[in-house]
Fold this sequence. Notes:
Blueprint: E1 2-3, H1 15-29, H2 48-51, H3 55-71, E2 74-75, E3 80-87, E4 89-95, H4 109-122, E5 128-134, E6 138-145, H5 148-156, H6 161-164, H7 174-185, E7 193-199, H8 210-219, E8 222-229, E9 234-241, E10 244-251, H9 256-265, E11 270-273, H10 276-286, E12 292-299, H11 307-325
Parallel strand pairs: 4-5, 4-7, 7-8, 8-11
Antiparallel strand pairs: 1-2, 3-12, 5-6, 9-10
Helix pairs in contact: 3-11, 4-5, 4-10, 7-8, 8-9
Amino acid sequence: MEFANKEYFLLLLLIVPYILWYFLYRKKTEPTMKMSDTYAYRFAPKSWRMRIAHLPMFLRCVVFILIVIIMARPQTHNSWDNRSVEGIDIMLAMDVSTSMLAEDLKPNRMEAAKEVAGEFIAGRPDDNIGLTIFAGESFTQCPMTTDHASLLNLLHNVRTDIAARGLISDGTAVGMGLANAVSRLKESKAKSKVVILLTDGSNNMGDISPMTAAQIAKSLGIRVYTIGVGTNKVARYPMPVAGGVQYVNIPVEIDTRTLSDIAATTEGNFYRATNNRELKQIYQDIDKLEKTKMNVKKFSKRYEAYQPFAILLLIVLLLEVILRTTVLRRIP
């Protein structure tokens, strides 16, 4: 914790003259009663009121200290942190076409892919990771970053209905998705640059063919891992109908040959994922990649932290007033 106005702590020196005044001079101004003999009171036990007679004074000192602390503006730590970490640069290219709603993976292909990708991101805090999504078109959902909290938030917000709502064209532009991810890695200085391409179909849209994008990735030293998601025959798919949803069986048409060629061209691996366990297998291979050092700059935002001191101040002040006006009240 830091204080924005540390000079206010000099006011704490005022407590010393107050304590001296309280014990040396204040007693002279208090009312007294003359007695002929105090022998009878010499060995009388002190009551509990006498034992806490100076407690209000102590509480007033605490109140003053808390006021000074609040005036000094306590704040959370705020600094730029530069450090070197070990990591690799990774772009996740994820298919979000409407076919990703098929329920051969549970609860569906899209949610299964997001869950496993989220676990992977959370398990690699030092990696520079970004996210590209594609259907009939492609765009970057999140550029490469080490701010994985923001990345995970954007990943969880990915929906497959963006094509159904007409925000982008439906279809499967594998080449465009791969090219978009590669463009984010072309300026990377990391020794290991990886694209994880996940799709459940074959390329049927876009201006760039998958193999052209693969050749570009190869020229830039980018390794591509491809994942074909879905069962081997047919998949259960929720078809919207008037007033509800009707489930139909749709054929699984994954261009395994092209996905395999993309991986082979870039010295990556091709995977077929028919369940969540197989979907996680690719991340075990990525863990074996060579890592490279990179500088990470982190920023911690400053927040005002006076609230606990203010609450304590009110409690102590209230306690002092109650004691002074009730059990420790002086007459006159």
